[in-house]
Structures are given as C-alpha cells and as structure tokens.
Amino acid sequence: MTCPTSSRNKHESNIISSIPFFSSLTPDEVDQVEKLFRKKNYEKEQIVLYEEDTSSYMYLIYSGKVRVVKMNDEGKEQIITIHKKNDFFGEMSLLDNKTSPATIIAHEDSVIGLLHKSDFEQHLIRNDEIRRKIIELLCSRLRESWEMIKILSFNAENAQDRVLSLLDRLGELYGVRDDRGVIIDVKMTHQQMASYASVTRETMSRVLRSLEKSDVISILDSKAILLNKNFFDTRSNSKRH
User: Fold this and answer.
1) Can you name the residues that pair with 67 across neighbouring β-strands?
2) Model-wide pTM > 0.85
3) Closest CA to 22 of 100, 121, 133
4) Long-range pairs for 172-179 at CB < 8 Å and ≥24 separation?
5) What residues contact residue 214 under an 8 Å CB cut-off, 6+ apart?
6) Residue 83 forms beta bridges with which residues?
7) Start and end of every HTH crp-type domain (predicted)?
C-alpha cells in the first residue's frame, strides 16, 4: 500500500511538472526542483508576500486560493487577480529583478510553496528550453492582463456591463459547469468584486440584485454565484452590439 507521504510527494512533483517551463525536465530534475520550494501554511487573509518581497520569490499554490492586490493610499484593495490551486506566479520579477506591484494575500486557508531567486536561476540560466517556455508564458500573462484591461475599460460609464464582464471572466477562470449553468467557484465579497471591476460596493450590490431579479444570475445557499442560461444570452447580445 502506498504511504500518504509518497502519495503527497508524487502529487507535488506532478504540480511542479505542470509548470510550463519545468515540463521539459526529467523526473529526477523535477524532484530536485520540488525540494527547493519552501512550503508553508497560510490562514485566510494572512499576507503571503508584501509588495517589496515579491522580487525575490516565485510562488506556487499547492492548495487554496490567493488574491493579488494593489493597495491604495487609503489601504483599500484593488484586486488584480485571484489564483487557485496549481497556479504559479512571480516568475517575471525573478527575470528582471524588479518588484511586482502587488501584495499577495491568502483568500482562503492555503498551502504555498516559495522558490527563491537564487535557486530559480540555477534551473533557468543553463537551460535554453526553460528560457524559451518562459517567453511563451510571459506572452500568455500579457494576454491575461489585456483581458483585465477590457473589464476595466468596457463601457466605463455602464456599471452593469462592467459587472457582466467581470462575471464572465470569473466564470472562465473559476467556473464549474452543471445542468443549471456555470457556478463561479471562488468566494468573493461584494467589496472584493467591486474593487476588481472598479465600481463602488453599493453599485456592485445593486447590479447583482438586479441581475438576480432578472434571472441572469442566482445566488446559491453557499453564497456562490450561478451564471444562468440568461447570462450567456445577455453576454452574446451585448457582444454583438
């Protein structure tokens, strides 16, 4: 019978090998990289990395979710994105030695692995394939940023379209499909969603109530948001116009 430790190590190695620029490594090399990640448990709302620390680490989510935020002068969050299990980030700052303009916060209880810059470089500089795949990855990250810009600029004076664009994006990233529609599998407060879409919390709550009343979305008992069939019809009509 496989012992729990062996099973866990195999799972963690699988996560490492799923990272595009480590996917070409041999199993032994993957095991070596896995040992370099310093794993730590974080409680919900605990800071994983402050902005000034992010230039020294790449980080990988073994379990849970984290949100990447920019803090304004008043200490309020502007959510940049949310990362879930198996996601990784921070590789760009290790390449150019510049701090990512964001703070990382545990969105729920999470296990995070941190890879220090010096260890990262040992597996980067000498491997042409890894460098090539990192370039491909950075292009993908740029496209993700463009999607967020679209949300923030889409009909800037129309709050409902901003919220619909946000829900659409959250559905793409975290959606779980069932026979009712798509459930957004990430819990966010109205304030957090508002900061994501750059609207006020009051506006977010008002628009969500209106969408629920119109049967575009449903709020489930778990507080998760269900995107109903009408949601996708509404989005299709909006994109045509």
Assistant:
1) 82, 105
2) no
3) 133
4) 173/82, 173/84, 174/82, 174/84, 175/227
5) 230
6) 66
7) 157-230
Q: Which residues contact 73 (CB under 8 A, 6 or more apart)?
A: none
Contacts made by residues 158-165, CB under 8 angstroms, sequence distance 24+? 159/199, 159/203, 159/207, 160/207, 160/210, 160/211, 161/238, 162/197, 162/198, 162/199, 163/193, 163/197, 163/199, 163/204, 163/207, 163/208, 163/211, 164/211, 164/231, 164/234, 164/235, 164/238, 165/197
Higher pLDDT, 115 or 139: 115
Is the model's pLDDT at 107 over the cut of 50? yes
Q: Could you tell me which residue, 30 or 214, shows the higher pLDDT?
A: 214
Helix (H, G, I), strand (E, B) or coil at 38: strand
**Tokens linked to 184:** 């957004």
Q: What digits encode the pLDDT tens for the residues 25-45?
A: 778 878 888 888 899 999 999
In the chain, the percentage of residues whose pLDDT exceeds 90 is: 26
Partners of residue 111 on adjacent β-strands: 41, 63
Rounded Cα–Cα distance for residues 240 and 76 (Å) = 36
Structure tokens at 97: 């030695």
Pairing status of strand 88-89 against strand 38-42: unpaired
Cα Dmax for the chain:
61
Average pLDDT of the segment spanning 133-152: 67
Type of residue at 58: M
